[in-house]
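Entry for the shared binder. Reason: the reviewer on the internal report wants the predicted structure included alongside the sequence.
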Amino acid sequence: MTNKTKTTLTGNKGEWSEFYAFIKILTDGKVFSADKNLKILEDHFHIVLKIIRQEAIGKKEYDISKNDGQVVVSDENAEIAIVDLEKIKGSVAKVFEQIKNSKGTTFEVASATSPMSDLHCTQMRASSGKKADLTIVLHDKKSPEFPELGFSIKSMLGSPATLLNASGATNFLYHIATEDNKPIQGSNNMSVRDAAKLTYGVGAQLEFIGMDSDVFRRNLRKIDSIFPEIVAQMLRHYYMGEATTINDLAHKITDDSAFMERIDFTKEMLLMNIKRFLSSIALGMMPSKDWDGYTEAHGGYIIVKEDGDVVCYHLYNRDKFEDYLFYNTKLDTPSTTRHGFGKIYEEEGRQRMKLNLQIRFLK
């Protein structure tokens, strides 16, 4: 057996929520499913057999499959500890309350020190760079196997998390078309929304012509060949100030009969593809990395709710997961200077404008 790890760590609410979700699920021994409104489905839960955390110094496994009130902690080489779950369980509520009530951007959680030491955790969250924050082995009545399933964790305790982070790769490019081909005047120093509204105020149209990132464009085309134009249409409505939530923006598009006829989509097809796009972003697709069409978080999503409940959207219930994303996300406006968008400019003798895509949870 190795010595316990003793460390003092600081993190934000999202980072500490990952550790809270870990010890909450570990001590409960199960995780509940939820509907699209995050309401727990009491009769739908998954039994947890083992949790695997990837830390900077290596992988650790937490085995509770014996159901004897203990967790066996192992690293990649050997068993390193056996811990009574009741000891850890006594800290769970305290950890949650300290995370929820803490002020400031980053902070310590004193009540996390003991369970982190007992469980040999060296950090509050998994190593970055992966969509999966926690890997769980579940007892699955539908399968005789026990696969390791990766889950992405989102917290409702801090500021609303982003589903899709803004970057230069999420810029969409538009040509500004006017009836007389005269350039639009007076757009200097305007906000992106005012500039977008100015184009419509003088009878111009924002015609989608491409994206800054060929990688992201190809990724979106794996949803559907016309999908980049659908996202571009959502951005038009958003920056014109017509709608904010994904739900409302989607219905703005379906109400546009001319656009729907041109792309040859039914309402059901459009909503299905938008939901698929959201779940693809949540589980694997990145704007700057070629996407193979598969998920990295193969299990689904875990949400830490404001009341301390932890719920799961398992990909066996993908419809509920996609509905949750559809009804609980919105577009947001990131920094125009950092990502290089929002101004009317001239290129190749024609005026153009870029709009940026960022998707954030409602809460």
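Summary line for the report: Residues 13-159 form one domain.
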